[in-house]
Amino acid sequence: MNFFRHRHRTVLGLPALAVVLITAAGCSSADDSARAAVPGPGAKVTKLCQNLDKVLPSKVDGQGRKDPEPASALTAGWGDPAIILRCGVDRPAEMDDPEADGVEVNGVGWLLQKQKDGSFRFTTTLRKAYVEVTIPKDRTGDGMAPLVDLAQSVKKAIPAGIAD
Questions:
Q1: At CA 102, angle to CA 113 and CA 96, rounded to 5?
Q2: CA nearest 150: which of 106, 117, 115?
Q3: pLDDT (tens digit per residue) in 91-136
Q4: Is cis: bond before 81, omega within 30 of 0?
Q5: What are phi and psi of 157, to 5 degrees?
Q6: At what angle do helices 43-55 and 145-157 cross, to 10 degrees?
Q7: 79-117 b/e with 16+ CB inside 10 Å = b?
Q8: Sign of the C-alpha dihedral computed for residues 84, 17, 120 and 117 taken in this order
Q9: Listed residue (3, 2, 1, 5) closest to 98, CA to CA
Q10: For residue 163, what is the DSSP state?
Q11: How far is CA 133 from CA 1, 2, 28, 116, in A?
Q12: Cβ pair 151, 106 in contact under 8 A
């Protein structure tokens, strides 16, 4: 079994969180509609994701919940531009890279991936289901505050371990 090994940084507070992403913030165009591809995990992971959906916060980074289309218990969203959560995604190939960037936020490990469009994608590590959170580039100035708000729900619904 190939375990995820990467440089792992523990994030201690919101000021430190903001530093990571502020430098990546830039100009962007507004996206009028939040859409998210719905993952297609197996039955075990789907059940974990449904449990996560039940305990997700109503607000993330001060933004009210506004789920993307198509509606699914495997996806959630907050704000505009939307912070998008997808549960049950495939394991990112970058988790095999020992030099991949990772952070720990309130006891939840995340792989950090900057996207070509300037957004950031974070995917949980060492959990029984992979949970992906995308922070659009228009919101990167907020640091990793969304991960702080989501950590408790992830810990509650998605057990630690290696996803099957």
A1: 75
A2: 106
A3: 999 999 999 999 999 999 999 999 999 999 999 999 999 999 999 9
A4: yes
A5: -100, -30
A6: 120
A7: bbbbbbbbbbbeebebbeeeebbbbbbeebbbbbbeeee
A8: positive
A9: 5
A10: -
A11: 25, 23, 19, 16
A12: yes
Cα separation, 117 vs 57, in Å, equals: 27
- Indicate the pairing of strand 131-135 with strand 120-124: antiparallel
Side chain identity, residue 140: T
Torsion sign across C-alpha atoms 103, 109, 100, 37: negative
Cα 113 to Cα 21, 35, 51, 59, 123, distances in angstroms: 11, 20, 26, 24, 8
What's the pLDDT tens digit per position in 48-98?
999 999 999 999 999 999 999 999 999 999 999 999 999 999 999 999 999
The one-letter amino acid at 128? K
pTM score, whole prediction: 0.79
What distance in Å separates the CA atoms of residue 23 and residue 63, rounded to the nearest whole number? Answer: 22
> 44: part of which helix (H) or strand (E)?
helix 43-55
Structure token pair of residue 130: 């992979």
In sequence order, what are the beta bridge partners of 8? 102
Place of tokens 């165009």: 29
